[in-house]
Specification:
15 strands, alpha+beta
Length: 442
Protein backbone atom coordinates (compact mmCIF):
# COMPACT_ATOMS: atom_id res chain seq x y z
CA UNK A 1 0.00 0.00 0.00
CA UNK A 2 1.46 3.32 -1.02
CA UNK A 3 0.24 6.75 -0.07
CA UNK A 4 1.73 9.93 -1.49
CA UNK A 5 0.99 13.36 -2.81
CA UNK A 6 -1.29 13.85 -5.75
CA UNK A 7 1.52 15.26 -7.88
CA UNK A 8 3.36 12.84 -10.16
CA UNK A 9 6.62 14.72 -9.75
CA UNK A 10 9.10 13.13 -7.34
CA UNK A 11 10.28 16.58 -6.28
CA UNK A 12 6.80 17.37 -4.94
CA UNK A 13 6.37 14.10 -3.06
CA UNK A 14 6.57 14.66 0.68
CA UNK A 15 5.32 11.31 2.02
CA UNK A 16 5.05 7.70 0.82
CA UNK A 17 3.97 4.80 3.01
CA UNK A 18 4.37 1.12 2.14
CA UNK A 19 3.19 -1.73 4.36
CA UNK A 20 3.96 -5.44 4.26
CA UNK A 21 2.29 -7.94 6.55
CA UNK A 22 4.05 -11.11 5.45
CA UNK A 23 0.83 -12.88 4.37
CA UNK A 24 -0.53 -12.82 0.84
CA UNK A 25 -4.18 -11.99 0.26
CA UNK A 26 -4.69 -10.41 3.68
CA UNK A 27 -6.67 -7.19 3.74
CA UNK A 28 -5.13 -4.36 5.72
CA UNK A 29 -6.70 -1.15 6.95
CA UNK A 30 -4.53 1.94 7.35
CA UNK A 31 -5.28 5.18 9.18
CA UNK A 32 -2.94 8.11 8.62
CA UNK A 33 -2.89 11.40 10.50
CA UNK A 34 -0.53 14.23 9.57
CA UNK A 35 0.32 16.45 12.54
CA UNK A 36 1.67 19.95 12.08
CA UNK A 37 1.40 21.06 15.71
CA UNK A 38 4.72 19.86 17.12
CA UNK A 39 3.71 20.78 20.68
CA UNK A 40 1.40 17.76 20.70
CA UNK A 41 4.52 15.58 20.86
CA UNK A 42 6.57 17.17 23.68
CA UNK A 43 9.88 15.64 24.72
CA UNK A 44 10.96 16.23 28.31
CA UNK A 45 14.65 15.51 27.57
CA UNK A 46 15.35 17.01 24.15
CA UNK A 47 14.45 20.47 22.98
CA UNK A 48 12.38 19.94 19.84
CA UNK A 49 12.23 23.08 17.73
CA UNK A 50 10.29 22.95 14.45
CA UNK A 51 12.36 24.54 11.67
CA UNK A 52 10.85 26.89 9.14
CA UNK A 53 10.45 25.61 5.60
CA UNK A 54 13.47 26.55 3.50
CA UNK A 55 15.45 28.10 6.34
CA UNK A 56 19.00 27.25 5.27
CA UNK A 57 20.57 28.61 8.47
CA UNK A 58 18.96 25.98 10.71
CA UNK A 59 21.71 23.41 10.08
CA UNK A 60 24.38 25.98 10.94
CA UNK A 61 22.50 26.90 14.12
CA UNK A 62 22.38 23.24 15.19
CA UNK A 63 26.12 22.86 14.67
CA UNK A 64 26.88 25.96 16.69
CA UNK A 65 24.50 24.76 19.38
CA UNK A 66 26.23 21.39 19.75
CA UNK A 67 29.73 22.86 19.59
CA UNK A 68 28.82 25.22 22.44
CA UNK A 69 27.35 22.41 24.52
CA UNK A 70 30.42 20.19 24.00
CA UNK A 71 32.72 23.02 24.99
CA UNK A 72 30.85 23.63 28.23
CA UNK A 73 29.45 20.31 29.41
CA UNK A 74 30.25 17.59 26.88
CA UNK A 75 26.67 16.33 27.36
CA UNK A 76 24.95 15.58 24.05
CA UNK A 77 21.59 15.02 25.78
CA UNK A 78 21.20 18.77 26.23
CA UNK A 79 21.56 19.65 22.56
CA UNK A 80 18.63 20.75 20.45
CA UNK A 81 16.90 18.33 18.13
CA UNK A 82 14.75 19.62 15.31
CA UNK A 83 11.68 17.90 13.94
CA UNK A 84 12.51 18.16 10.25
CA UNK A 85 9.41 16.65 8.65
CA UNK A 86 5.71 16.23 9.07
CA UNK A 87 4.76 14.11 12.08
CA UNK A 88 2.96 11.11 10.61
CA UNK A 89 0.77 8.94 12.81
CA UNK A 90 0.16 5.56 11.18
CA UNK A 91 -2.15 2.79 12.39
CA UNK A 92 -2.39 -0.43 10.38
CA UNK A 93 -4.64 -3.37 11.21
CA UNK A 94 -4.93 -6.71 9.42
CA UNK A 95 -8.51 -7.97 9.08
CA UNK A 96 -9.46 -6.05 12.20
CA UNK A 97 -6.58 -7.53 14.24
CA UNK A 98 -3.18 -6.28 15.23
CA UNK A 99 -0.38 -6.80 12.72
CA UNK A 100 1.81 -9.91 13.01
CA UNK A 101 5.53 -10.20 13.71
CA UNK A 102 6.35 -10.00 9.99
CA UNK A 103 4.80 -6.57 9.69
CA UNK A 104 6.93 -3.98 7.89
CA UNK A 105 6.18 -0.28 7.62
CA UNK A 106 8.42 1.68 5.26
CA UNK A 107 8.07 5.44 4.99
CA UNK A 108 9.58 7.94 2.60
CA UNK A 109 9.60 11.39 4.20
CA UNK A 110 10.78 14.65 2.68
CA UNK A 111 12.84 16.80 5.10
CA UNK A 112 11.67 20.36 5.65
CA UNK A 113 15.20 21.76 5.74
CA UNK A 114 17.97 20.72 3.36
CA UNK A 115 21.23 20.34 5.28
CA UNK A 116 23.28 20.06 2.08
CA UNK A 117 25.96 17.50 1.14
CA UNK A 118 28.62 16.23 3.54
CA UNK A 119 30.96 19.16 2.90
CA UNK A 120 28.22 21.53 4.15
CA UNK A 121 26.81 19.42 7.00
CA UNK A 122 30.19 18.78 8.67
CA UNK A 123 31.82 21.49 10.74
CA UNK A 124 35.01 21.62 12.81
CA UNK A 125 35.28 23.52 16.07
CA UNK A 126 38.52 25.46 15.56
CA UNK A 127 39.20 25.82 19.29
CA UNK A 128 38.89 22.11 20.16
CA UNK A 129 39.32 20.35 16.82
CA UNK A 130 36.07 18.45 17.38
CA UNK A 131 34.14 17.65 14.19
CA UNK A 132 30.36 17.44 14.22
CA UNK A 133 27.87 16.55 11.51
CA UNK A 134 24.19 17.31 11.07
CA UNK A 135 22.36 14.04 10.46
CA UNK A 136 18.81 12.80 9.98
CA UNK A 137 17.33 10.15 12.22
CA UNK A 138 13.96 8.42 11.90
CA UNK A 139 12.23 8.32 15.26
CA UNK A 140 8.96 7.22 16.84
CA UNK A 141 7.17 9.05 19.61
CA UNK A 142 6.67 6.98 22.76
CA UNK A 143 3.58 8.35 24.47
CA UNK A 144 4.33 6.45 27.69
CA UNK A 145 7.74 8.00 28.24
CA UNK A 146 6.95 11.22 26.33
CA UNK A 147 10.13 11.10 24.28
CA UNK A 148 11.33 10.42 20.75
CA UNK A 149 13.10 7.08 20.32
CA UNK A 150 15.33 5.78 17.52
CA UNK A 151 13.58 2.49 16.75
CA UNK A 152 13.60 2.61 12.95
CA UNK A 153 16.38 2.13 10.45
CA UNK A 154 17.34 5.38 8.73
CA UNK A 155 18.62 5.46 5.15
CA UNK A 156 19.34 8.53 3.05
CA UNK A 157 21.92 9.84 0.64
CA UNK A 158 24.32 12.03 2.62
CA UNK A 159 25.57 13.66 -0.57
CA UNK A 160 22.01 14.62 -1.56
CA UNK A 161 19.83 14.55 1.57
CA UNK A 162 17.19 16.73 -0.09
CA UNK A 163 16.01 13.63 -2.00
CA UNK A 164 14.36 12.38 1.17
CA UNK A 165 14.73 9.87 3.99
CA UNK A 166 13.65 6.23 4.17
CA UNK A 167 12.41 5.00 7.54
CA UNK A 168 12.22 1.20 7.80
CA UNK A 169 10.07 0.25 10.79
CA UNK A 170 8.16 -2.76 12.11
CA UNK A 171 5.50 -1.14 14.27
CA UNK A 172 2.68 1.42 14.27
CA UNK A 173 3.05 4.77 15.96
CA UNK A 174 3.83 8.43 15.25
CA UNK A 175 6.92 8.97 13.10
CA UNK A 176 9.08 11.93 12.16
CA UNK A 177 12.53 12.73 10.82
CA UNK A 178 14.63 14.38 13.50
CA UNK A 179 17.63 16.53 12.66
CA UNK A 180 20.50 17.10 15.02
CA UNK A 181 24.29 17.30 15.14
CA UNK A 182 26.50 14.51 16.40
CA UNK A 183 30.18 14.34 17.17
CA UNK A 184 32.01 12.27 14.52
CA UNK A 185 35.65 12.94 15.45
CA UNK A 186 37.31 13.73 18.73
CA UNK A 187 39.64 16.70 18.80
CA UNK A 188 42.71 14.47 18.58
CA UNK A 189 41.56 12.52 15.49
CA UNK A 190 43.31 14.92 13.13
CA UNK A 191 46.59 14.68 15.05
CA UNK A 192 46.34 10.90 14.96
CA UNK A 193 45.78 11.03 11.21
CA UNK A 194 48.90 13.15 10.75
CA UNK A 195 50.87 10.81 13.00
CA UNK A 196 49.71 7.80 10.99
CA UNK A 197 50.64 9.45 7.69
CA UNK A 198 54.11 10.38 8.95
CA UNK A 199 54.86 6.96 10.43
CA UNK A 200 53.37 5.08 7.49
CA UNK A 201 55.33 7.31 5.10
CA UNK A 202 58.57 6.49 6.93
CA UNK A 203 57.61 2.82 6.93
CA UNK A 204 57.02 2.98 3.16
CA UNK A 205 60.46 4.48 2.62
CA UNK A 206 61.93 1.68 4.73
CA UNK A 207 60.12 -0.92 2.63
CA UNK A 208 61.48 0.62 -0.57
CA UNK A 209 64.99 0.59 0.90
CA UNK A 210 64.57 -3.07 1.87
CA UNK A 211 63.65 -4.04 -1.69
CA UNK A 212 66.52 -1.95 -3.07
CA UNK A 213 68.99 -3.87 -0.90
CA UNK A 214 67.53 -7.35 -1.41
CA UNK A 215 66.76 -7.43 -5.13
CA UNK A 216 70.27 -6.59 -6.48
CA UNK A 217 71.97 -9.10 -4.13
CA UNK A 218 71.68 -12.44 -5.93
CA UNK A 219 73.19 -14.38 -3.05
CA UNK A 220 70.56 -13.03 -0.68
CA UNK A 221 67.43 -13.09 -2.82
CA UNK A 222 67.82 -16.80 -3.69
CA UNK A 223 67.45 -17.98 -0.09
CA UNK A 224 64.07 -19.14 1.14
CA UNK A 225 63.77 -16.53 3.87
CA UNK A 226 64.73 -13.68 1.51
CA UNK A 227 62.16 -14.77 -1.08
CA UNK A 228 59.44 -14.71 1.57
CA UNK A 229 60.65 -11.34 2.84
CA UNK A 230 60.57 -9.88 -0.68
CA UNK A 231 56.97 -11.05 -1.20
CA UNK A 232 55.92 -9.81 2.24
CA UNK A 233 57.63 -6.46 1.72
CA UNK A 234 56.07 -6.01 -1.73
CA UNK A 235 52.55 -6.71 -0.41
CA UNK A 236 53.04 -4.35 2.54
CA UNK A 237 54.41 -1.67 0.23
CA UNK A 238 51.37 -1.91 -2.08
CA UNK A 239 48.95 -1.75 0.86
CA UNK A 240 50.75 1.24 2.38
CA UNK A 241 50.86 3.15 -0.90
CA UNK A 242 47.13 2.65 -1.60
CA UNK A 243 46.34 3.91 1.89
CA UNK A 244 48.60 6.98 1.56
CA UNK A 245 47.35 7.81 -1.96
CA UNK A 246 43.78 7.90 -0.70
CA UNK A 247 44.18 11.45 0.63
CA UNK A 248 45.25 12.62 -2.84
CA UNK A 249 42.53 10.80 -4.79
CA UNK A 250 39.55 11.15 -2.45
CA UNK A 251 38.29 14.38 -0.91
CA UNK A 252 35.50 14.80 1.65
CA UNK A 253 33.95 17.62 -0.33
CA UNK A 254 33.67 15.47 -3.47
CA UNK A 255 36.35 17.32 -5.43
CA UNK A 256 38.73 14.34 -5.64
CA UNK A 257 39.35 12.04 -8.58
CA UNK A 258 37.33 9.30 -6.87
CA UNK A 259 33.93 10.27 -5.45
CA UNK A 260 32.80 8.86 -2.11
CA UNK A 261 30.07 6.17 -2.25
CA UNK A 262 30.58 5.50 -5.98
CA UNK A 263 31.52 2.30 -7.80
CA UNK A 264 35.08 3.60 -8.13
CA UNK A 265 35.18 4.21 -4.39
CA UNK A 266 33.88 0.69 -3.71
CA UNK A 267 36.55 -0.83 -5.97
CA UNK A 268 39.27 1.21 -4.25
CA UNK A 269 38.00 0.15 -0.81
CA UNK A 270 37.92 -3.51 -1.84
CA UNK A 271 41.48 -3.28 -3.24
CA UNK A 272 42.69 -1.78 0.04
CA UNK A 273 40.85 -4.42 2.06
CA UNK A 274 42.28 -7.19 -0.13
CA UNK A 275 45.89 -5.93 0.05
CA UNK A 276 45.87 -5.67 3.84
CA UNK A 277 44.51 -9.21 4.10
CA UNK A 278 47.32 -10.34 1.78
CA UNK A 279 49.76 -8.68 4.18
CA UNK A 280 48.18 -10.60 7.08
CA UNK A 281 48.61 -13.86 5.16
CA UNK A 282 52.30 -13.16 4.55
CA UNK A 283 52.68 -12.43 8.26
CA UNK A 284 51.47 -15.95 9.04
CA UNK A 285 53.77 -17.38 6.38
CA UNK A 286 56.70 -15.48 7.94
CA UNK A 287 55.85 -17.00 11.31
CA UNK A 288 55.47 -20.48 9.86
CA UNK A 289 58.81 -20.20 8.03
CA UNK A 290 60.57 -19.02 11.18
CA UNK A 291 59.06 -21.96 13.06
CA UNK A 292 60.35 -24.38 10.43
CA UNK A 293 63.81 -22.83 10.40
CA UNK A 294 64.42 -22.46 14.14
CA UNK A 295 62.13 -24.95 15.87
CA UNK A 296 61.38 -27.91 13.63
CA UNK A 297 64.59 -27.70 11.55
CA UNK A 298 64.58 -31.33 10.38
CA UNK A 299 61.84 -32.23 7.90
CA UNK A 300 61.18 -28.57 7.11
CA UNK A 301 61.55 -28.93 3.34
CA UNK A 302 58.44 -28.04 1.30
CA UNK A 303 58.35 -28.78 -2.41
CA UNK A 304 57.39 -25.81 -4.61
CA UNK A 305 57.03 -23.75 -1.47
CA UNK A 306 56.99 -20.36 -3.21
CA UNK A 307 54.15 -21.39 -5.51
CA UNK A 308 52.13 -22.75 -2.60
CA UNK A 309 52.79 -19.75 -0.37
CA UNK A 310 51.87 -17.26 -3.11
CA UNK A 311 48.66 -19.10 -3.98
CA UNK A 312 47.68 -19.08 -0.29
CA UNK A 313 48.61 -15.44 0.33
CA UNK A 314 47.05 -13.96 -2.81
CA UNK A 315 43.98 -16.21 -3.16
CA UNK A 316 42.65 -16.76 0.37
CA UNK A 317 41.74 -13.04 0.88
CA UNK A 318 39.78 -12.71 -2.40
CA UNK A 319 36.31 -13.62 -1.02
CA UNK A 320 36.48 -11.24 1.97
CA UNK A 321 36.09 -7.85 0.22
CA UNK A 322 33.58 -9.32 -2.24
CA UNK A 323 31.43 -10.64 0.61
CA UNK A 324 31.79 -7.35 2.46
CA UNK A 325 30.56 -5.21 -0.42
CA UNK A 326 27.89 -7.38 -2.03
CA UNK A 327 26.36 -8.72 1.20
CA UNK A 328 26.32 -5.45 3.15
CA UNK A 329 25.35 -3.08 0.32
CA UNK A 330 21.57 -3.13 0.00
CA UNK A 331 19.00 -1.22 -2.05
CA UNK A 332 15.68 -0.21 -0.50
CA UNK A 333 12.72 1.05 -2.51
CA UNK A 334 9.54 2.81 -1.44
CA UNK A 335 7.35 3.79 -4.34
CA UNK A 336 9.62 5.24 -7.03
CA UNK A 337 12.39 6.15 -4.57
CA UNK A 338 15.40 3.85 -4.26
CA UNK A 339 18.18 4.40 -1.74
CA UNK A 340 21.36 2.41 -1.17
CA UNK A 341 22.57 1.50 2.31
CA UNK A 342 26.36 1.32 2.28
CA UNK A 343 27.06 -1.01 5.17
CA UNK A 344 30.55 -1.73 3.82
CA UNK A 345 31.86 1.70 2.76
CA UNK A 346 32.84 4.45 5.18
CA UNK A 347 31.02 7.79 4.92
CA UNK A 348 34.02 10.01 4.22
CA UNK A 349 36.67 7.70 2.78
CA UNK A 350 37.02 4.68 0.50
CA UNK A 351 37.66 2.03 3.11
CA UNK A 352 35.69 -0.35 5.30
CA UNK A 353 33.16 1.40 7.49
CA UNK A 354 34.62 1.69 11.01
CA UNK A 355 32.81 -0.06 13.87
CA UNK A 356 30.60 -1.99 11.45
CA UNK A 357 29.90 -5.70 11.06
CA UNK A 358 32.12 -5.96 7.92
CA UNK A 359 34.97 -4.20 9.76
CA UNK A 360 34.83 -6.48 12.80
CA UNK A 361 34.18 -9.76 10.96
CA UNK A 362 36.11 -9.35 7.69
CA UNK A 363 39.05 -7.21 8.78
CA UNK A 364 39.57 -7.16 12.55
CA UNK A 365 38.74 -10.86 13.12
CA UNK A 366 41.32 -12.09 10.53
CA UNK A 367 43.89 -9.73 12.06
CA UNK A 368 43.25 -11.08 15.56
CA UNK A 369 43.51 -14.66 14.27
CA UNK A 370 46.82 -13.88 12.54
CA UNK A 371 48.22 -12.25 15.69
CA UNK A 372 47.19 -15.20 17.86
CA UNK A 373 48.83 -17.69 15.48
CA UNK A 374 52.00 -15.62 15.27
CA UNK A 375 52.12 -15.20 19.03
CA UNK A 376 52.31 -18.99 19.28
CA UNK A 377 55.15 -19.03 16.73
CA UNK A 378 56.78 -16.14 18.60
CA UNK A 379 56.67 -18.04 21.89
CA UNK A 380 58.20 -21.15 20.32
CA UNK A 381 60.96 -19.18 18.62
CA UNK A 382 61.77 -17.15 21.75
CA UNK A 383 62.10 -20.38 23.71
CA UNK A 384 64.65 -21.64 21.20
CA UNK A 385 66.55 -18.33 21.39
CA UNK A 386 66.51 -18.40 25.19
CA UNK A 387 67.86 -21.95 25.32
CA UNK A 388 70.58 -21.31 22.77
CA UNK A 389 74.11 -21.47 24.15
CA UNK A 390 76.45 -18.54 23.78
CA UNK A 391 79.54 -18.82 21.62
CA UNK A 392 82.80 -17.42 22.92
CA UNK A 393 83.54 -15.72 26.20
CA UNK A 394 80.68 -13.28 26.69
CA UNK A 395 78.98 -12.28 29.89
CA UNK A 396 75.44 -13.20 30.86
CA UNK A 397 74.38 -9.59 30.35
CA UNK A 398 75.71 -9.56 26.77
CA UNK A 399 74.02 -12.89 26.08
CA UNK A 400 70.72 -11.54 27.45
CA UNK A 401 71.09 -8.40 25.30
CA UNK A 402 71.63 -10.50 22.18
CA UNK A 403 68.58 -12.59 23.01
CA UNK A 404 66.46 -9.49 23.49
CA UNK A 405 67.62 -8.10 20.14
CA UNK A 406 66.82 -11.40 18.42
CA UNK A 407 63.38 -11.57 20.09
CA UNK A 408 62.62 -7.99 19.03
CA UNK A 409 63.59 -8.78 15.45
CA UNK A 410 61.34 -11.83 15.48
CA UNK A 411 58.45 -9.77 16.88
CA UNK A 412 58.80 -7.19 14.09
CA UNK A 413 59.00 -9.83 11.36
CA UNK A 414 55.91 -11.60 12.68
CA UNK A 415 53.94 -8.33 12.71
CA UNK A 416 52.97 -8.61 16.37
CA UNK A 417 53.11 -4.79 16.53
CA UNK A 418 49.64 -4.97 14.96
CA UNK A 419 48.49 -6.17 18.38
CA UNK A 420 48.53 -2.52 19.48
CA UNK A 421 46.49 -1.54 16.41
CA UNK A 422 43.57 -3.61 17.69
CA UNK A 423 43.07 -1.14 20.54
CA UNK A 424 42.66 1.72 18.03
CA UNK A 425 39.08 0.48 17.50
CA UNK A 426 38.37 0.66 21.23
CA UNK A 427 37.28 4.07 22.61
CA UNK A 428 39.86 5.49 24.96
CA UNK A 429 41.83 8.49 25.99
CA UNK A 430 44.00 10.49 23.65
CA UNK A 431 47.25 9.23 25.15
CA UNK A 432 46.13 5.61 25.09
CA UNK A 433 45.03 5.62 21.46
CA UNK A 434 48.08 7.57 20.32
CA UNK A 435 50.40 5.14 22.10
CA UNK A 436 48.64 2.27 20.32
CA UNK A 437 48.80 4.10 17.00
CA UNK A 438 52.59 4.55 17.08
CA UNK A 439 53.75 0.90 17.01
CA UNK A 440 50.93 -0.27 14.73
CA UNK A 441 51.66 2.39 12.09
CA UNK A 442 55.42 1.94 12.15
Amino acid sequence: MTVGSASSSEDNTILLIETKNGDEGVNMDMAIVLITDYTLMPDVKISVVPPQQGNASVAVDILKDLETVLDVTGDEDTKKTYVNSLITEVTVTSSGNETNENFKLNLFMKPSVNIGPTKDSVRTNLSTGVRVEVVFQCAMYNTSSAKWEDTCQTIYDKEDPSRGVLCLCNHNTSFAVLMSAYEIDKGYAESQTILTQVLLGLSTMGLLATLCFLLPAKALRTTRSSKINICFTSALLLASLTFLLQDLLIKEDGSGVIKVKTIGCAVYAMIQHYLWLVVFCWMVIEGFLMYLSLVQVFGSHISKYMLKFNIAAWCIPIPFPLIGYFVFTKDYTVGSFTFTEHGYLADTMCFIKPESIPFFTLFLAPLILVILVNLVFFGLVVRVIKNSKSSGNISDEEQLLRQLKAATGVMVLLGTGWFFGIFMSVPGSRGFQTSCNTPSSS
